[in-house]
Design brief:
The chain is mostly helical and 1074 residues long. It is 64% helix and 2% strand. Helix 29 runs antiparallel to helix 30.
Length: 1074
């Protein structure tokens, strides 16, 4: 037992130090002396003082300083236990064994604080007390390893509702090395509080199990979280082996982050990696440079800007002068050195660039890479990438010598003849990424270099002299195309003896072979059926004969298929190369097409004949459509002549919608669906571009037909038209609005509505991380990438959730197929609607209002209804988009005189569906903006209540709006209509009864269906009302009784509601009515 005198002495020293009378440096030796004389007294005094600190936690900084002093004392006394054992050992082993070692201080103190904190699954209701206990436990747990009770208590604190307590618990868990603590930290990396996320990221050790969770924070919206990620990575440079190539490239791009603190932290991490790997090139070689070329170039540019000396050395090695042809043909082991050299060269001044770069050696090396890229081996892919990097440098170089100019011209011609074709797939054509990749192809760079040696640049003043040079350059390219086709024309004509283009002759042969193959396949099916019948009849002689016929049929079928594939490869190779050259010329030429006979002639002599070829492959067909669309964008007359074709291609998306899910990947039907969707994507962009560029050439109906065709898109293909629609509305929205004032253009208003919903689509939390506020500490089956980051599609019905995986077989037709692209698209949609009311003119704000009205009037608002979803016995309330966020976004961006329309359509929903409107949180959204309510909102609310809206749900809104004055007899006085409200009669009706409102919505849905919009896929016509109410809705509408005992006569008094912002009290008249 500790003596009371010693305990009092220890308490006195502690009190003097806490009060500031004795410095801590003097108090610690005194406490050490007392600890050696009576250790139990010191522990008892510390425990007593800890009790006082926890009880007086609301003292603020004083309690915090006292608690920190107690932790320092315990740590100091525990550190002084071991050094005192050495002198005693010199006196003899017997004497040392006789004396018992000093007991620990931190462990019993920690046990006492755990008792004060309530123990397992118990705790104080006061947040200051919980915070103080969590602070003490987090500090002591680092000094007491493997304390199970402390770890369990910190796990409880990590789920506390107070963010500061969760942050302190995370710091404590960071000092533990158990798997349970690691999983808890991983769960806290997605906490809503910024400080908690930052502490969790800093506390996690980088390993194979935590790398994925840490890398998700690279896109965190808060700079401090991103900075802590890089600080953690800089402390463990050896963990670079746990990072994949794509993730490493994304981390290196952190050197160019928008925030200075993140750039500084990323620099420390990159410096540590460079030192660990032994140079910049080993680091860049580990990054993924080819999957996302823009990201790879950004990473290389950041490294080249940070490590100037090594970048200059690499540029001299691979772009400088080379002596001997053998050295010029030496190629690097990967694309990293040349990419680093190219971007280092771009960062140099003009004088340094001329000193480093040797164009003659560069041309020799480019020829060597071009030859190597022709080989069909494992290195051909990155060698094509390497060729494009060298061509970029050639296009950047200054060419002043005539002999050197001829060498560069020969290189450009060789690239057009023999360079690998762009490797974009059919599904990428028509997308932003696919367009960027095609514009950076080797053939495009060959056209750029050929124009450069001809004295042309992309943007320059157009004069008669420049037009003549442009025409000569176009003629030169067309002659190169004829030279490409000449060997095939000669050889085919000699073999067949027929006249006409070789593509037509080959296409006819392919068509004939297709018919023969189809006939052989039909014969094979008949033989197989006959053989089964013979075996069933036990006619084995006949079965043997049929078997021999099957072998003969299969041999002939194989021969025909091989011949067809050879002809297809021969024809499509030439056609795709010619189309790539023509498309590149159209992209980079600055010539006036009507004054350039060679360029204009390619439309009638090359493109249109290719469209009419029989047995045309899908790749060639999409490439031809893309080239024709480029012609339409360049010339208004061509656009008008092909306008109906572009509209028809875009309407082909309806067939894709009908056939979705009916074809398996790899089949001919699936390839046709992909081709139709790619052609529609190209046509959609061309229509929007032509309407904006040739608006003065096209008539008003043609410009409006573009918007109508883009708006009537099926749901599964909506991503195809989002960017074209945004561009059209920003440039030509005034035309739509003027026509809408004359006669409503329903399909365009509908498109504005679903685009607005797309911008506020709900992003759901992963179910395997957090369920009803409790952490799962066991590993579950990992969810798919789409479900993890975005949840199910906002139009997926409950019974379709299991079959949603079948829909994404068509690529980006499902929400979860391209998660990153979908998130970026939603962000761009938000920017679009934020910019819309700021456009010059008076049409921007009304269009934003029409978008929200479309959501209300078409039934899209039902996608914002909260519905219960049960998973693993837990019920979660989920919705597809947030109506309060959407309504607040639109309300604050509209002028005051236009907000009345929003209130009218919102309250009409409350009248039509009084049971579903609260679940969509429409009354709550109105109450949240009640301070900025338009004039006449009180009258509108009263009219909604009179028509049957839920008075309990609209109670908070009614309490926030001005109350209407009343006459004698408790009759409400009707005020004159507010400004802007129609006053056709003395008592105007702005809302309609529920039956009329539902009939109006059904009529709108039928009109949209008649325009080709499958409205039932986009939005349900009705929803079943859940039998329960979300818990937070009950809390929002909860009432509480006044504190204290009730006096006599108050038993039936009105209950007092919770005075929170989202649950204002019901007016006295409403309470009396109840």
């Amino acid at each position: 037992m500790a003596s009371k005198g010693q305990t009092a002495n220890v308490a006195k020293v502690l009190e003097q130090c806490i009060a500031g009378e004795v410095p801590e440096s003097n108090a610690l030796p005194q406490l050490l002396h007392l600890h050696r004389s009576d250790a139990r007294a010191v522990v008892a005094a510390l425990a007593e003082k800890a009790t006082t600190v926890v009880q007086q936690a609301d003292a603020g900084q004083a309690a915090t300083r006292a608690g920190q002093f107690l932790i320092n004392v315990a740590g100091f006394l525990d550190r002084q236990r071991e050094p005192e054992a050495a002198p005693k050992a010199k006196k003899g082993a017997a004497a040392a064994e006789a004396e018992a070692p000093l007991p620990e201080v931190s462990r019993p103190l920690l046990d006492h604080i755990l008792l004060l904190s309530g123990g397992k699954n118990r705790g104080s209701k006061d947040k200051a007390t919980r915070a103080q206990g969590c602070t003490l436990i987090s500090a002591l747990v680092a000094q007491v390893p493997e304390h199970k009770a402390a770890e369990e208590k910190l796990l409880e604190f990590a789920l506390d509702k107070v963010p500061s307590i969760r942050e302190k618990a995370v710091r404590g868990l960071a000092g533990l090395k158990s798997p349970t603590a690691e999983m808890a930290l991983m769960a806290r990396t997605t906490d809503q509080c910024t400080a908690v996320r930052a502490s969790a990221v800093r506390g996690l050790q980088v390993s194979s199990s935590t790398a994925g969770t840490l890398l998700e924070r690279i896109d965190d919206v808060e700079a401090c979280v991103r900075a802590q990620l890089f600080m953690r990575l800089s402390e463990q440079p050896a963990s670079i082996t746990e990072l994949g190539p794509a993730a490493l490239a994304r981390l290196v791009v952190g050197l160019a982050d928008r925030t200075n603190s993140v750039r500084s932290a990323a620099g420390q991490a990159v410096d540590a990696w460079v030192e660990h790997l032994g140079g910049v090139l080993p680091l860049l070689s580990r990054c993924d440079l080819k999957s996302d070329e823009a990201l790879g170039e950004a990473a290389a540019a950041a490294l080249a800007a940070r490590f100037l000396e090594e970048g200059s050395r690499v540029a001299r090695q691979w772009l400088g002068q080379v002596t001997g042809k053998d050295k010029a043909k030496t190629l690097p082991d990967g694309p990293a050195p040349v990419l680093m050299a190219r971007l280092a060269l771009a960062n140099m001044s003009e004088a340094d660039r001329e000193e480093v770069l040797d164009v003659a050696s560069l041309v020799q090396r480019a020829h060597a890479v071009l030859e190597a890229s022709q080989k069909k081996d494992a290195n051909s892919t990155w060698q094509e990438y390497l060729l494009r990097q060298l061509l970029h440098v050639v296009a950047l170089a200054d060419i002043g010598d005539e002999g050197l100019r001829r060498q560069v011209e020969k290189l450009a011609e060789a690239v057009l003849f023999r360079s690998p074709l762009p490797c974009s797939t059919v599904t990428e054509i028509g997308t932003t990424a696919g367009t960027f990749r095609m514009a950076q192809s080797a053939i495009d760079l060959g056209i750029v270099i050929l124009r450069k040696v001809s004295g042309l640049v992309r943007f320059q003043a157009q004069t008669a002299k420049h037009q003549a040079v442009e025409a000569r350059c176009s003629t030169r390219v067309v002659l190169l195309v004829s030279e490409i086709c000449q060997p095939f024309e000669t050889s085919t004509a000699d073999e067949e003896g027929d006249e006409g283009p070789f593509t037509t002759r080959l296409s006819l042969q392919i068509q004939e072979l297709n018919g023969k193959i189809e006939e052989l396949q039909h014969t094979k099916a008949n033989i197989d059926q006959a053989k089964k019948k013979a075996l069933a009849a036990e006619d084995y002689l006949q079965a043997q004969k049929l078997k021999e016929q099957t072998r003969k049929n299969e041999k002939e079928l194989t021969s025909c298929v091989e011949e067809r594939d050879r002809l297809l490869k021969e024809r499509d190779g030439v056609c795709l190369r010619v189309l790539a050259i023509v498309s590149a010329l159209l992209r980079w030429s600055n010539s006036e097409i009507r004054k350039d006979p060679a360029l204009m002639g390619t439309l009638d002599q090359i493109l249109l004949p290719l469209v009419g070829l029989p047995a045309l492959s899908k790749e060639v067909e999409v490439a031809v459509v893309s080239a024709i669309c480029l012609f339409c964008v360049r010339d208004g007359a061509v656009a008008r002549s092909h306008w109906s074709l572009l509209l028809e291609l875009l309407r082909g998306l309806q067939e894709v919608e009908k056939a979705s899910g009916t074809h398996q990947p790899g089949t001919e039907g699936f390839a046709k669906l992909q081709s139709d969707r790619a052609r529609a994507a190209v046509a959609a962009r061309a229509l929007a571009d032509c309407a904006r560029i040739h608006g003065g050439f096209l008539d008003r109906n043609e410009v409006l037909s573009c918007a109508q065709a883009l708006a009537a898109v099926p749901f599964s293909s909506r991503q195809v038209v989002i960017e074209p629609l945004c561009g059209y509305m920003l440039s030509l929205g005034h035309i739509y609005f003027e026509e809408h004032l004359k006669e409503p253009v329903l399909e365009v208003q509908w498109a504005l509505g679903w685009m607005l919903v797309e911008a506020f689509k709900q992003r759901r939390q992963p179910e395997d991380k957090q369920v009803e506020g409790k952490i799962k500490l066991v590993e579950d089956t990992p969810s798919t990438d789409g479900q993890k980051k975005r949840g199910l599609s906002w139009v997926t019905r409950k019974d379709e959730a299991q079959s949603a995986a079948k829909v994404d077989q068509l690529g980006d037709m499902d929400d979860g197929s391209e998660v990153t692209e979908a998130i970026a698209m939603a962000s761009r949609m938000t920017q679009f609607f934020a910019l819309l009311p700021k456009l010059p003119g008076k049409h921007g704000a009304p269009m934003l209002s029409l978008a929200l009205e479309s959501v209300c009037e078409s039934g899209l608002w039902r996608r914002g209804v909260l519905l219960p979803h049960t998973s693993d016995g837990q019920t979660r309330w989920l919705r597809n988009f947030s109506w309060p966020e959407l309504f607040s976004f639109v309300h604050e961006r509209l002028p005051a005189d236009m907000r009345f329309r929003l209130w009218r359509c919102s309250l009409q929903i409350c009248v039509n569906d009084p049971s579903l409107a609260p679940l969509a949180e429409i009354p709550f959204a109105l109450a949240s903006v009640a301070a900025d309510a338009p004039p006449g909102a009180s009258e509108l609310l009263q009219e909604a209540l009179d028509l049957g809206a839920d008075p309990e749900a609209l109670g908070p809104l009614r309490a926030r709006l001005p109350q209407l004055p009343e006459k004698a007899g408790n009759k409400k006085q009707k005020l004159p209509p507010a400004v802007g409200i129609p006053s056709a009669s003395a008592n105007p009706k702005l809302l309609v009864p529920p039956a009329a409102g539902k009939a109006a919505e059904q009529e709108r849905r039928e009109e949209l269906a008649s325009l080709g919009i499958n409205i039932d896929v986009w939005a349900p016509g009705d929803l079943e009302v859940p039998k329960m109410v979300p818990q937070f809705h009950r809390m929002r509408m909860a009432v509480r009784r006044p504190r204290g005992a009730q006096k006599k006569g108050q038993e039936n008094s009105a209950e007092v509601q919770n005075p929170k912002e989202n649950a204002l009290p019901v007016p006295a008249e409403a309470a009396a009515a109840k």
